[in-house]
């Protein structure tokens, strides 16, 4: 059966780059509809015409014979769908059922556990830089510092250590010593960890090596990724 037409609704400076990388790795044809963030760094309203939440990435699948369209949202779900329907040669899958389950787990973990404290940390950094006069700036800084150490940065070390150890156990990848969809999806939060300064590359050689491996396979991200 013919593959549907795949249309990627892409937003600049966003996590949407991962879907393009996934489709490239699977050598699938696709179209890109690009959107620019507004002056407040939000997605433009047009994206809401594709999906009511209006967040990127969104994927539209169009049946080539009937024209029927299906819209997929949520990066983890988009990955799961594309891998299970279109990775017919198992390029990014693992034949071992336990490993396949582990990949699935990471598709949930990356956006569900690792990403939220990072997004919070980015927002706190923005708040910290807001032009507020002294002594209010001092008080704001104190409150932000407390929230960060209790809820975001403070909670992340455990997670980053965990990911570092998993990659060390799996010969440079998250699962089974080979590139999988999980590595591509987790790349965004892992890059953010270093971008926001929560951790330093020198302390996480395995995470750094994975990011280098992805980068060397043509994976480039130009994203400020504030959410
Ligand atoms: N959990 C969603 C998050 C989607 C999301 O927050 N996308 C951001 C870009 S990285 C966005 O569209 N932000 C613009 C806005 O919210 O206006 C996913 O993984 O797809």
Automatic annotation (TrEMBL):
InterPro entries on file: Glutathione-S-Trfase_C_sf, Glutathione_S-Trfase, Glutathione_S-Trfase_N, GST_C, Thioredoxin-like_sf
Similarity comment: family membership: Belongs to the GST superfamily.
Record key words, sorted: Transferase
GO cellular component: cytoplasm
Keyword Cell membrane: no
Enzyme Commission no: 2.5.1.18
Pfam families, sorted: GST_C (PF00043), GST_N (PF02798)
UniProt cross-references to CDD domains, sorted A to Z: GST_N_GTT1_like
Recorded GO MF terms: glutathione peroxidase activity; glutathione transferase activity
Alphabetized PROSITE patterns for the sequence: GST_NTER
Coiled-coil positions: none
UniProt domain GST N-terminal: residue ranges: 3-90
The species this protein was found in: Torulaspora globosa
Protein name in UniProt: glutathione transferase
Reaction catalysis annotation: RX + glutathione = an S-substituted glutathione + a halide anion + H(+)
């Amino acid at each position: 059966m013919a593959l549907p037409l795949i249309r990627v609704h892409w937003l600049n400076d966003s996590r949407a780059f991962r879907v393009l990388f996934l489709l490239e790795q699977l050598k699938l044809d696709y179209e890109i509809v690009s959107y620019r963030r507004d002056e407040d760094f939000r997605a433009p309203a047009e994206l809401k015409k594709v999906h009511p939440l209006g967040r990127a990435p969104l994927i539209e699948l169009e049946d080539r014979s009937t024209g029927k369209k299906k819209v997929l949202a949520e990066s983890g779900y988009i990955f799961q769908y594309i891998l299970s329907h279109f990775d017919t040669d198992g390029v990014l899958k693992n034949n071992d059922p336990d490993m396949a389950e582990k990949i699935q787990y990471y598709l949930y973990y990356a956006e569900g556990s690792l990403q939220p404290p990072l997004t919070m940390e980015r927002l706190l950094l923005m708040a910290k830089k807001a032009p507020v006069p002294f002594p209010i700036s001092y008080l704001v800084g104190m409150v932000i510092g407390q929230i960060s150490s209790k809820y975001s940065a403070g909670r992340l070390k455990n997670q980053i250590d965990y990911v570092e150890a998993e990659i060390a156990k799996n010969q440079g990848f998250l699962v089974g010593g080979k590139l999988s969809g999980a590595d591509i999806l987790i790349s965004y939060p892992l890059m953010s960890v270093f971008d926001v300064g929560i951790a330093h590359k020198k302390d996480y050689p395995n995470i750094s090596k994975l990011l280098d491996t992805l980068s060397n396979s043509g994976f480039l991200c130009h994203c400020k990724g504030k959410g």
